[in-house]
C-alpha cells in the first residue's frame, strides 16, 4: 500500500491543523494506521494510532487532549486533527500502515510495514 501525507504547513501557536494520509494500492479497511513525528537529530516519536475498525485509538503521552485521529474508509484517508499547537509540535509528521488484527494498534515504529513521505508542520510566531 502507498501512503501520501498532506496538510502540513506553517501556523502560529494556538492554531489548529488537520493532516491527511491517503492510502492506495490496498484494501484500506484492512489496515490500522499510525502517525509519528520526527525532528532533526531525534528518533521518530509516536503520536497517534487507530485500529482497522476505527474503534480503538491510542495517543502519545500528553497528546490526547489536543490531538485526534480518525479514518474515513470511503475516502481511504486517515486524519490527524491537531489543536492548540505549540512550537514543541514542530516536526515532520509521518503516517504508517499495518494490517493489524482486530482492535490492535501499533505504537512503535518497527510495528509498521508501510510509510508515507512525511509532511512538515512548523509552529512559529
Summary of the model, kept short:
The chain is 0% helix and 47% strand.
Would you write up a description of this structure?
This protein is mainly beta and 125 residues long. Helix content is 0%, strand content 47%. It has no helices and 11 strands. The strands form 2 sheets. Strands 2, 4, 5, 6, 9, 10 and 11 form a 7-stranded mixed sheet that branches. Strands 1-3-8-7 form a 4-stranded antiparallel sheet, with no helix packed on it.
Distance between the termini: 37 Å
Strand fraction equals over 45%
Question: What is the rounded Rg?
Answer: 13 Å
The main β sheet shows up as:
7 strands, mixed
How many distinct helices? 0
- Unreliable sequence segments: none
Mean model confidence by pLDDT: 96
Task: Let me know the number of strands.
Answer: 11
What proportion of the residues is helical, as a percent range? under 10%
SSE pattern? EEEEEEEEEEE
| Alpha-beta classification | mainly beta
Instruction: Tell me the overall shape.
Output: globular
Layout: helices, strands, pairs:
Layout: E1 2-6, E2 9-11, E3 17-24, E4 32-38, E5 45-50, E6 57-59, E7 67-72, E8 77-82, E9 91-98, E10 114-115, E11 119-123
Parallel strand pairs: 2-11
Antiparallel strand pairs: 1-3, 3-8, 4-5, 4-9, 5-6, 7-8, 9-10, 9-11
Amino acid at each position: 500500500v502507498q501512503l501520501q501525507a498532506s496538510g502540513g504547513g506553517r501556523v502560529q501557536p494556538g492554531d489548529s491543523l488537520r493532516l491527511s494520509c491517503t492510502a492506495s494500492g490496498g484494501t484500506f479497511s484492512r489496515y490500522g494506521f499510525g502517525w509519528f513525528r520526527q525532528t532533526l537529530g531525534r528518533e521518530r516519536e509516536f503520536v497517534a494510532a487507530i485500529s482497522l475498525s476505527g474503534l480503538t485509538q491510542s495517543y502519545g503521552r500528553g497528546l490526547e487532549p489536543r490531538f485526534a485521529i480518525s479514518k474515513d474508509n470511503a475516502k481511504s484517508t486517515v486524519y490527524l486533527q491537531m489543536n492548540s499547537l505549540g512550537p514543541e509540535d514542530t516536526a515532520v509528521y509521518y503516517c504508517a500502515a499495518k494490517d493489524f488484527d482486530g482492535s490492535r494498534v501499533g505504537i512503535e515504529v518497527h510495528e509498521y510495514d508501510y510509510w508515507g513521505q512525511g509532511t512538515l508542520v512548523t509552529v512559529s510566531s
